[in-house]
Specification:
With 77 residues, the protein is an alpha+beta fold. The chain is built from three helices and three strands; from the N terminus they run H-E-H-H-E-E. It has one domain: Arc Repressor Mutant, subunit A (Orthogonal Bundle), CATH 1.10.10. Strand 2 (59-65) and strand 3 (68-73) form a beta hairpin. The longest helix is centred in the middle third of the chain and has 13 residues, at 43-55.
């Protein structure tokens, strides 16, 4: 991630991106959008943010095929 702080936390940006799409988004597509806003970000940082949101019940991450994950907003959020 960039050394300069962004005004939007990564977790909030992920939720906003999902709300903007109004459906599910591929993890690779999400990573591309994040890199446009934040610059370089590691898979570990992305996975930590996704795990945090999933534990809080905000998003749901599911496996579509081997190596392909889909991220979507949880139904109750």
């Amino acid at each position: 991630m960039s050394k300069v702080w962004s005004s939007t936390p990564l977790t909030l940006f992920i939720v906003e991106a999902l709300e903007k799409k109004k459906s599910m988004i591929d993890k690779d597509e999400l990573l591309k959008e994040i890199k446009e806003k934040y610059g370089e970000i590691s898979f570990k940082e992305l996975n930590n943010a996704l795990l945090k949101l999933e534990v809080l019940g905000i998003i749901k991450v599911s496996r579509l095929t081997k190596g392909k994950r889909i991220v979507e907003l949880a139904k109750n959020s």
